[in-house]
Structures are given as structure tokens and as C-alpha cells.
Amino acid sequence: MTETAANAIELKNTSVHFDNGDQQIDAVKNVDLTVPRGDIYGIIGYSGAGKSTLVRVINLLQKPTAGTVIVNNQKIQQLKPVELRQARKKVSMIFQHFNLMKSRTVQGNVEYPLLGTKISKADRHAKAEKLLKLVGLSEYAGTYPGQLSGGQKQRVAIARALASDPEILISDEATSALDPKTTKSILELLKQLNRDLNLTIVLITHEMQVIKSICHNVAVMDAGEIIERGSVAKVFTEPQQKLTNDFVETSTNVKEAIERITSTIKISEFKADQELMYFNFIGNSTKQSVVSELSQKYGVDVNILFANIDQIDGENVGYMIAIITGDLAGFNGAVQQMKTEGVKTRILTDETLKGGDGQ
Amino acid sequence: MNAIMPNVMAMKGEFIQATWETIYMTLMSAIVSAVLGLLVGVLLVVTQPGGILEDKLTYSVVDKLVNLLRSIPFIILLAVISPLTKFLVGTTVGTTASLVPLIFGIFPFYARQVQNALLDVDHGVIEAAESMGSSPMAIIFRIYLREGLADIIRVSIVTIISLIGLTTMAGAIGSGGLGDVAINIGYARFENDITFMAMIIILILVFAVQLIGDWIVRRVEHN
Ligand SMILES: Nc1ncnc2c1ncn2[C@@H]1O[C@H](COP(=O)(O)OP(=O)(O)O)[C@@H](O)[C@H]1O
Ligand SMILES: [Mg+2]
């Protein structure tokens, strides 16, 4: 019981099967998912992986074919229609295409969830005004959504989502239609809501960049299954699955760099005292100086072809690809010792790169 | 004027009367058809597969009924429905009696138009409303009918204009109105200026409906 209380969402062995006559789709397959209260939990996967279907199970917009769904300590499949509608008010949702009502003003949209409730008209106005202020759109109260930019529309949608005082916010690709700068500001807003309102956020995306900037935990979804999960820092630095690694390397530009490098230089033509090495620095970014110390100690030459630094869940992570020339045995041995201190390395050869994932 | 339209000038009173009859038939049948058409249109949208109150049986029965009624040519409907008209109104001639065939002639058409207008309401908005815990009734009144209002008004204009056309057909078989004047007086007596005048008045009515409708659409639409 104490365990359930700590969790906002628990999906147990949940499956969703679509039967469209001749077309059978297992959109979600035996998924277990636990989202702790107050977490920002990311779900990443390519289009068609089943992400939307999975989160639609959380508010029962999609009935699961099998499995148990516990949200805010309620087994929601057992609720009567009226109770379910009440429960849904505590699980708000924002969408890629905003889904605002074009016939209502910004204020009208934000007030919508409060229509038909006991809240008085004056209180409704006041609440909408407060929420619009929170998302920074006070002066747009009387405007119709058609007049707003994408980022502004998503802010209105967020204000509307907050009107029913939800405990959980589900974001289904909410930043996918926005430019990078607007994406960043929306993510900042979500982060602020998570912190200030202790709002649990489940965030779907196909971009690792988004996960990296605000999520604490992440699940990687592929063909209806969660194939990998854990803290963002862990999944990001030690991806176990090829798909996860794909997402990580795409978002850090490592993938692109490896392609660029291997198209211009041939590892097979390296001299005996040369190797191509991939470095991964976790934590304090000054660790990169470790490499220069070691290179001096062993008299090796480090020719950096690519370097990038990133912030994951508040921690610095560096990536570097370099050609090492000199006493390889000594240098490799020493660099191996640094593993426990957050410096990980991998020698890139034609064999290891053939898979295309650099693992 | 007397030289160009001698017969019209002699029948000023009849024309005014006929114009009012046409307006009366159009308005009364429009009001009843609007209620029936909206009900059926909404019913079709909510019960269709994937709708908010999905009900395959209801949907398919209503859908087929609408198709059936729409397939009957109006001039045939006028004749076929006369026993029902007689039962409901007590007579089959006159403006009030014509309301029965007019309503049956137009409301299935209007229902289909309403259905199409509502289908254009963004499905994402419906889903958003469901996720906010809206009841089916709330979704019908606060989302479908509201978000679809501009389109509903557009199809209403088209329907009223069709309806004016139908009143003239009903007029031809004795319901009164401008159709009656044009056919049973102008055409039957070879008094061409009467037929022509009836047409002019009908065109004015159609343009007036179009203008007023467009003006309302502009007021409710916020794209
Ligand atoms: N209502 C539905 N009926 C039939 N198939 C569906 C339905 N919704 C989703 N699917 C299918 O389920 C799979 C997963 O879809 P979705 O959950 O939308 O993926 P994602 O959000 O990860 O892109 C896809 O193959 C999609 O075509
Ligand atoms: Mg999706």
C-alpha cells in the first residue's frame, strides 16, 4: 500500500490489441510501467512504436485489452463512467497539435474544464486569469487561438490542462511541432510546473534532446514494448540496446560524426601505432584534461576529430573521438583505469563500426 | 410599368400575399427541419464507428433511413405523403399542408449536411475534451455544435435556399406561394410577366438569405 502511494501511475502487464478486420496490431505488448509521484518520466520511440496508445491507457481514452491500470491509487478500469470522468480531470493531457477550440477565446479555452462544475463564474474567470499569468499570456485572454503562434497555443493548452488542478500531466509530442527555441521555453515551463506544483509529468517524444533536457527517468519503446528503461543519466551513458544507442548518438551528434570521420579516413590504413578512440566523460567536464595528462605521460599524440559536451539531468557529459598515435598499449591500459572515474573509452575499428551503431 | 408588366400590376395584392406564403412555408418547415436535422445529424456523428457514443446498429439504421428518404424525388414525395398530410393537417392543399412534405423532403438532406459539418470538427479537440472529463452531452453541446457552428450555418443557408426551391414545387400542386402564382397563373394563362416577376422575387429572397447567412458566418468564425 505504501508503495502504491508513492507512485502516480502503475501499469501492470498492459496490452493493447487492435483488430481492424484483416489488420491485427499489437500496439502495446505486456508493458509494466511505474511512474513515481513528482517525476518527469520520458517515453521515447520512433513513430508507430505505440507511445500514444500506451499513454492513452492512463486516462482510459484507450481501453487496454489486458492488464491493470492504477492511477492516483485508483484502479481506473473499475470506475463507473461518472467516476472515470472525475478521475480524468486529475490526469490532464497536452498534444502535438494543441487541440484548442477555435470558437473560444484563450480565456474561454482555459475556462473550459471548469464548465459544468460547481465553481462560480467569477472564480472561473479568476482562475483562468491566474493560469494565463502563469504561462505568460495574460494580455492574450480575449484573443482567439487562430491568432496565436505555435508556442503560444501550447502555453494556452498547458494553462487549460492545469485548470482542473491535475496531479498528472501527459504530454504527447507537445513540442514536436515547435521550433527549437520555442521547444526549450515550453520544456522550461513544464520543468517549472513539475517543481512548483509537484506535477507528475509523462512526456512522449521521439527526440532524445527533449528527454535529456527535462526528464529524470526514461523508457525506450519499440514495437509496443519497453525495451530499456532507467534514469536518464544511466540510459544515456550506458545504453544497452541498439535503438537506445541510436537515439543517444543521434542527439549527441556522435552518430553523424562517426559517419563523417569514417567517410574521410580509413581505419584499415592506420599505422600499427595508430587507433581511433571514442571517449565518454561523465560528470565534471574538466576530466577531459585527464586525457592530455595521460597523453603526455605516455608520449602519445591525440588528434581530436570530434568533441561535444552535453547536460544530462543536470550533469555534464562529454563525447570525443580522436586518433591516438604512439605507445598504444601503455595509453590504453592507463585510460582503462579511468573507467571508475567516469571516463569510458572504446576503440573504433571497421568491425565494431560495421553494425553502424558504434557499439 | 403598366406597359411592360400589365398582368403583374393588376395582381399586386396577390404577389404580396404569395411572397408571404413562400416565406411562411420556408420558415416553418426550416424550423422543424432544423430540429429534426440537427438531432439526426448529431446522432449519426456520435453513433458512428469510433464516435463518442458508438452504436453500430443505431448508426446503420439511421444512416440507411436518411439515404432512403433522400432518394425519393420531391415531386413523388409530395404525392406519396399526401395520406399522412391529410391525417396530420386534415387537408392536402394550402400552405400549412405543404409543410409536411417540405419537412420530409428537406430534413434528411439537412441531417446529412449537419453530419458532414460536424465530421469536420477536429477530432483532436474531441479527444482533448474527453481527456478533460467532458461527458458525451457536454461534448455535443460545448464542442461539436459550437466548434461546428460556422459550418452548420453555411449548410443551413444552402438548405434554406433548396427549401425555397421546394416550396415552389409544392406551389405547383396547389400549396400557394410564388410557385403557385408562377405556374398556375403565369404559366397556365401564358402571362409571362407574372412568371418572370415570381422568379425575380424568389431570386431576391435567395440573395437575402445568402447575404444574411454570410454575415452571420463572418461573425461566428474565428480562424
Ligand atoms: N485506433 C487504432 N486502431 C488501429 N490501429 C491503431 C489505432 N491507434 C493506433 N494504432 C496503431 O498502433 C500502432 C501504434 O500507434 P501509436 O500508439 O500512435 O504510436 P506512436 O504514438 O508511438 O507513434 C501503430 O501501428 C498504429 O497504426
Ligand atoms: Mg503518437
UniProtKB/TrEMBL annotation, chain A:
Coiled coil: none annotated. The keyword Nucleus does not apply. GO terms for molecular function: ATP binding. Pfam families: ABC_tran, NIL. The keyword Iron does not apply. It comes from the Bacteria. InterPro entries: AAA+_ATPase (IPR003593), ABC_transporter-like_ATP-bd (IPR003439), ABC_transporter-like_CS (IPR017871), ACT-like_dom_sf (IPR045865), MetN_ABC (IPR041701), MetN_ABC_transporter-like (IPR050086), NIL_domain (IPR018449), P-loop_NTPase (IPR027417). Gene3D superfamilies: 3.30.70.260, P-loop containing nucleotide triphosphate hydrolases. Residues 11-248 form the ABC transporter domain. Keywords: Amino-acid transport, ATP-binding, Cell membrane, Membrane, Nucleotide-binding, Translocase, Transport. SMART domains: AAA, NIL. This is Methionine ABC transporter ATP-binding protein. The lineage of its organism: Bacteria, Bacillati, Bacillota, Bacilli, Lactobacillales.
TrEMBL record, chain B:
Belongs to the binding-protein-dependent transport system permease family. It comes from the Bacteria. This is Methionine ABC transporter permease. The keyword Transmembrane helix applies. The lineage of its organism: Bacteria, Bacillati, Bacillota, Bacilli, Lactobacillales. Residues 19-213 form the ABC transmembrane type-1 domain. Keywords: Cell membrane, Membrane, Transmembrane, Transmembrane helix, Transport. InterPro entries: AA_ABC_Transporter_Permease, MetI-like, MetI-like_sf. The keyword Transport applies.
